[in-house]
Amino acid sequence: MLPTQQRFEQSLSENVPLAPMTTLGIGGPARYFADVTTTDALIAGVEWSRRRRTPLFVFGGGSNIVFADEGFHGLVLQVSIRGVETRFDEDGVVVTAGAGEDWESLVAQCVANNWSGFECLSGIPGRVGATPIQNVGAYGQETSETLKSVEALDLAGGSLVTLSASDCEFGYRTSRFKTRDRDRFVITRVTYRLAADGKPAVRYAELQRYLADRGLETPTLTDVREAVLAIRRRKAMVIDPSDVDSRSVGSFFVNPTIAIDEFERLKRHIQEQTEGDADIVAFPLSDGRVKLSAAWLIERAGIKRGYSHGRVGTSTKHALAIVNRGGGTAREIVELKELIAARVLDRFGIVLTPEPVFIGM
Ligand SMILES: Cc1cc2nc3c(=O)[nH]c(=O)nc-3n(C[C@H](O)[C@H](O)[C@H](O)COP(=O)(O)OP(=O)(O)OC[C@H]3O[C@@H](n4cnc5c(N)ncnc54)[C@H](O)[C@@H]3O)c2cc1C
User: Fold this and answer.
1) Side-chain half-sphere of 148: how many Cα atoms within 13 Å?
2) Is the C or the N end of the chain the one with fewer CB within 10 Å?
3) Cα(39)–Cα(303) distance, rounded to whole angstroms?
């Protein structure tokens, strides 16, 4: 046996509880588990699962996953490839980070260096390797704006490939990694291009208001990062072990986008039902569609903040987050997800799409 395969087998553990590795704190054991810190170890793990015909699942920080109560009956690989390299060229700073790097630490480091492009993505848990999967975004900024390329192991061909930003087929909270090529690529490194001029992106109305209220007319990158963190903390959208409302996967549903004529119909429908007293929250998009607030739809469908379903419920600070209040199960999470989606469909005719991935169920 080759030394890397031997080393991989030595690093394998059996029946490892997955719940502690997730921000939701839910899920049964992995039949086999390994933490891989090099590309060679990753390739050895993939080979091992192939030879044994064992299903494979790869993950990073566990902040966007609901593992089944029964766990996963295959090999779970946690991608912990580290390392950050930076270089300057005529267009700015090029940052390449290992998939296992902590996202929030990378953001903090880039903001401290006065490199712009990540500042609004402060406070998001998880690792670098997951940022392209759903084109992580917040407060008016998205991964796709700065991502230059992705290095990945292509499980279809067995080789390491480099994908450009356009190869990734990014959309709002989606990419080819979440759609037509789900489970095909294991991301090993991500390269981003940042601007060295330090100008922050202040596009999101709530962020603009927060900064204006504090008299910050020309905010620095650090001002914007701190503002984003403060706004997120008010919604329990920054992980805080002492706050049960942050024991979540963040937003549980993607904000739905609909065509403008569908939006006009929806507005009329809501106005009829509320005798004109409708304050529907919606944002026009550049492609002519309209983005609706999933949190607004959920609350108006009768599921308020702090709603309980067994040992899980909605956050007391944000109706869009489903939280584990302690001892919750994946089954309860799925039941509540279905209840919320059914209420919104019934009330507004809008289909809500969940944001996290569901594994083993
Ligand atoms: C409190 C809180 C706030 C959040 N706020 C936001 C937010 O503002 N915006 C936002 O977009 N998201 C948000 N999220 C969701 C989540 O943090 C992000 O989606 C994050 O990028 C997930 O990273 P992770 O490493 O934890 O991924 P995981 O949860 O481990 O995995 C998520 C998915 O990515 C895949 N994956 C992970 N690593 C790799 C890899 N190396 N190669 C291939 N596939 C991989 C997994 O298979 C899985 O399908 C929030 C979550 C929480 C708990």
Assistant:
1) 15
2) N
3) 45
pLDDT at residue 277 tops 60: no
Within 10 Å of residue 271's Cβ, how many Cβ atoms? Answer: 13
3-state secondary structure at position 313: strand
Catalytic site residues?
173, 251, 355
User: What is the distance between the alpha carbons of residues 48 and 8, in angstroms, rounded to a whole number?
Assistant: 9
**Three-state secondary-structure class, residue 12:** coil
Write the residue with the smallest CA distance to atom 53 of ligand 1: 249
pLDDT digits (tens, 9 = 90+) for 108-128: 999 999 999 999 999 999 999
pTM (predicted TM-score): 0.96
For residue 76, the 8-state DSSP code is E
Which residues have C-beta atoms less than 6 Å from ligand 1? 23, 58-65, 79, 99, 124-127, 129-131, 133-134, 136-138, 185-187, 237, 239, 246, 248-250, 357
Which has the closest alpha carbon to 340: 309, 311, 361? Answer: 309
